[in-house]
Amino acid sequence: MMRQMRENTTWIMLLTAIAFVGLMVFQWGMDITGRSGMSVGEIGSVNGTPVQYEDYNSTYRSLFDQVQNSQEDPVTSQQVQDIEDAAFDEVVNQILIRQELERRGIEVTDDEILTQARFNPPPEFVSSVAFQTDGVFDIQKYQNYLASPTIDDVLLLQLESYYRNVIPRNKLLRQVSSDVYITDAELWEEFLDRNERISVRYVALNPAQRVADSLVMVTPAEVRRYYDDNREEFMLPAQATLSAVVIDKTPTPADTVATRETTARLRQEILDGTDFEDLLNRPDIAPGSGDLGWFTQDRMVPQFSEVAFAAVVGEITEPARTPFGYHLIEVQGKAGDSIQARHILVPFARTDESELELFALADSLEELGESRTIQEATVLLGLTVQTAFVNTDFAFLQGAGQIGEGADWALEEASEGDVSPVFETRQAFYMLELVETREAGYSSLEDATPSIEQTLLAQKKLDVAKSEGEEVLAAIRTGESIKAVADVRGLEIDSAGPYARVDFVPGLGRLNAAVGAGFGLNVGEISGVIEAANNVFIIEVADYFAADTTVFEDERLARREELQGFAQQARMQEWIEGLRDIAKIEDRRDEVLTNDPTAEQVPQMPLVF
Predict the structure, then answer these.
(1) Distance CA 477, CA 466 (A)
(2) Which 3-state string (H, E, C) describes 191-222?
(3) Given 37, 161, 205, 526, which is the most exposed site by the fewest CB atoms within 10 A?
(4) In terms of Cα–Cα distance, which of 375, 404, 314 is closest to 78?
(5) Which residues of 245-262 are buried (b: 16+ CB within 10 A; e: fewer)?
(6) Any idea what DSSP says for residue 319?
(7) In sequence order, which residues have a C-beta less than 8 Å from that of residue 182 and are 6 or more positions away?
């Protein structure tokens, strides 16, 4: 097999790491290099198959790198927890897929590997400039490269392993989604949703504005009946009341001044002869600095455009502040209402000194929290305490954002009076003290009554508005114009469109009965009374714009492939969830991946990569 590959093809290394997230497993399969190193422990099992730490750690590293490469800030402790869970879930999915491949007897032949290698290269090859002609992938260039004699056996083995994983998974994908097919009728309907358009005139009878509270009444019996009939609406998740302190990571005013000074120094370097392009690789320069090409004034944030469009061609502007940081702008050309420019952006960031002070403050807070209440600790450090509430459905802390890690601590680990370690999000460091917890349960009728009264009141007002709408409609059907009837009742006639079914329509909303109603009417025809978005509408179609069948034919095949891809992914996600539902999955990470320094032969999560 390998000699045959040597004689026919030559390979190059994959250009980027394989992603392990979600359904990409069916496009890529397992890591091309397979397992590496010795197994250091089992951290769980799937239907009796061990979850090996090395597989988990490899997936964790891959996901960690993806997250870190997608952001400038270091990965936070909250993100680490999310990555750990995602890595375990992905390894479980991989095992379930392997088990299913074995159960179904799905295999791959040598000929299939050769064919796929020649005619179905991985996406990284397709996107590589080396294999493109005029910006488009050139299969001939790719195959010519493969025909070159330089090759080594290790790389061939790696690539063979890659295709032996990918091809069976693609077969499995086809089996699981074999009945997924987008018909021409479905394609046409989807095309109409995006391209058929109408313009309308409409009357809105807003019940909140037209129906006074005095015209409707809600009785205690109605409140009780609603409470009994809709008990699940009043289910309350477990909740924790917390005292919290937040240390904001946002750059300080002094850091902002330092950012401007850095930008001014860069400007002086350019004026002293340093090449503009040579500065782009500096670590304090934001990615995206460089050529902007031609653009109009409305394409940039106002602060940038104001300086750029006032600048003289060839000169370097003074530091220009935008929400992103300070820019140096060089306008290279002007034509009509457009300019060509390049820029250097120094983003707002803490200085090294400021960052050290931030970390020192967080460390001091954590140290004090080990022996003092959160109130005592914050007084000593000059910080303020806020009260926060988190539950199993909502974990948000003002100034810190989503705090799933802190919520888990409060709801699963802590006792009342405990003080947490210092946690971290992208926005802040934070520490919590558990004040009290409330178990999951139902709101009492007394507590639920105000919200029920508002719900019933709104519904009764809506019913009144609908009755008025029927009166308006009856008057129109006697021969009066919609405008005449509206004038008598003090209603305004508004216009909207042209719009498609999937558009957001100001005044009407999006993907609701009011937006869709007009597509069932002829021009000049008037709808019935329509309830949508807590409002009542009567609509008249003013104009109609048909979808272009020529455009439909031009895009039909490509659109079918795209929509079927989405449908197959949805089917595969359902299928994987179904496998997980019936699988026996054991997660022993908390037991095995301990931080206990006295434990022997226990695999530890890597802290540095």
Answers:
(1) 16
(2) HHHHHCEEEEEEEECCHHHHCCHHHCCCCHHH
(3) 37
(4) 404
(5) bbbebebeeebbebbbeb
(6) P
(7) 560, 563, 564, 567
On whether the CB atoms of residues 537 and 507 are closer than 8 A, the answer is no
CA of 11: how far to CAs of 1, 192, 365, in Å?
15, 45, 55
Nearest to 441 by CA among 269, 236, 299: 236
Q: DSSP state, 293? A: E
- Pick 593 or 1 by higher pLDDT: 593
User: Residue 328, Cα to own-chain centre: how many angstroms?
Assistant: 32
Overall size of the chain counted in residues: 609
Beta carbons of 380 and 368 less than 8 angstroms apart: yes
- By the 8 A CB rule, do 174 and 572 touch? no
Residue 10 token pair: 């030559």
E strand segments, 369-427: 386-391, 396-397, 401-402, 423-424
pLDDT classification of 451: cutoffs 50, 70, 90: very high
Of 405, 365, 377, 401, the C-alpha closest to 250 is: 401
Residue 158's Cβ-side half-sphere holds a number of Cα atoms within 13 Å equal to 15
**Which of 592, 429, 359 is CA-nearest to residue 77?**
429
Residue 534 host element (H or E): none
User: Which of 43-47, 151-155, 179-183, 343-347 bottoms out in mean pLDDT, i.e. has the lowest?
Assistant: 151-155
Q: Are 505 and 202 in contact (CB under 8 A)?
A: no
Could you read off the pLDDT of 529-579 as tens digits, one per residue? 999 988 999 999 999 999 999 999 999 999 999 999 899 889 988 999 999
**Alpha-carbon span 494 to 503, nearest angstrom:** 17
How many Å separate Cα 392 from the centre of its chain? 21
Q: Rounded distance, CA 394 to CA 390, Å? A: 6
Q: What does the alpha-carbon distance between residue 400 and residue 402 come to, in Å, rounded to a whole number? A: 7
Query: Is the CB of residue 503 less than 8 Å from the CB of residue 200?
Result: no
For residues 205 and 182, give the distance between their C-alpha atoms in angstroms, rounded to a whole number: 40
* 8 A C-beta contact, residue 159 and residue 117: yes
How buried is 285 (Cβ within 10 angstroms: 0-12 exposed, 13-18 middle, 19+ buried)? Answer: buried
What is the pLDDT averaged over residues 159-177? 83
Q: Please give the C-alpha separations between residue 203 and each of 305, 428, 462, 541, 545, in angstroms, as whole numbers.
A: 41, 48, 15, 12, 22
The conformation of residue 490, written as its DSSP 8-state character, comes to T
Kindly report which listed range (47-51, 167-171, 464-468) carries the lowest average pLDDT score.
167-171
**SS3 state of residue 544:** strand
pTM for the full model? 0.61
Q: Helices 445-477 & 220-229, crossing angle to 10 degrees?
A: 100
